[in-house]
Every structure is written in C-alpha cells, then in structure tokens.
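Q: What residues go here?
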C-alpha cells in the first residue's frame, strides 16, 4: 500500500490567510481543494509538498463568481470549459437543486474518449456526480466519508 509522505496541513479561513501561508512556504507549499489529483501524485512521489494549504474553509470561495467556474478535465482530450454550467452558477447559492442542475449542464458538455480502462458511457455518466461532489465540497459540506470511499484519503 502506498502511503502519503509526511506534510504540514493548514486550513485557513480567508484568502488573505491562505496567501500569507503560501507566500511563507514558497515552493514547498501547495494549495488543495479536492485533492483528487494531488494526493495520488503525492503517494507516487510525483509531487512532494512539505505543506498543504486547504481552500475548503474559505467562505469567499464558496460562491461561483463571474470569471470562475467548472472545467472538465478527464472527459476529453483537452480541458473543456462547461460554459452553460458556469453561466447557470453565477450568483447562485449552492443548493442541492442548483448543484444537480449544474452537474447535468456540465455532463451535456462532456465529450469523453473511449479507452481500455473505462468506456465512454461510464465517463459521461460520472460527470454530474463528480461535479456535484466538487460543488458540495466548495459549499462546505463534510465530504470526508465520500472521499474515503472514492479516493481512500482521509483529508
């Protein structure tokens, strides 16, 4: 079993505090929101930050503002901006209904490639679930049980 290397963990409550910690750590620090790429890379020692700075407790980042939004990465040969989902999310509070609709809109944009690991239909079907997972985490929901079930990470 691959284990994560040792690291310090900070969970600031403001953007200013996160920026201060990141500036103090320099290249030894990395920001973490969902961690679905970073944590497996850390296990494989592809990335080895000494400090992780979580963005999950920063209230100012829990609302989608103009200029930010969803980008789908693993469902195409290149990152796709989920424009309809982004437009829909601007200025809205992340309720369960809003999150479900954003997931459906993002899935309509997904153009997954078929490969030997997972078929195209499965990749398209999981988009709303993963978008919902990310948005619930941004909203501040406790996603530890879900993360443990999916990624086997307790952060």
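A:
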């Amino acid at each position: 079993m691959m284990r994560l290397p040792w690291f310090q963990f900070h969970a600031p409550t403001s953007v200013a505090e996160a920026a201060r910690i990141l500036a103090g750590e320099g290249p030894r620090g990395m920001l973490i929101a969902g961690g679905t790429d970073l944590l497996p890379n850390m296990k494989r020692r592809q990335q080895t930050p000494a400090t992780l700075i979580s963005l999950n407790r920063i209230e100012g980042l829990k609302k989608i503002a103009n200029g930010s939004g969803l980008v789908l990465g693993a469902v195409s040969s290149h990152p796709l901006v989920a424009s309809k989902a982004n437009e829909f999310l601007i200025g809205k509070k992340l309720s369960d209904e809003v999150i479900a609709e954003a997931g459906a809109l993002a899935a309509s944009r997904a153009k997954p490639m078929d490969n030997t690991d997972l078929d195209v239909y499965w990749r398209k079907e999981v988009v709303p679930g993963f978008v919902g997972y990310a948005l619930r985490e941004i909203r501040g929901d406790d996603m530890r049980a879900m993360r443990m079930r999916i990624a086997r990470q307790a952060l």
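A: Context that may help when evaluating the design: Residues 120-139 form the longest helix (20 residues). Helices lie at 15-25, 38-43, 83-89, 96-109, 120-139, 144-150.
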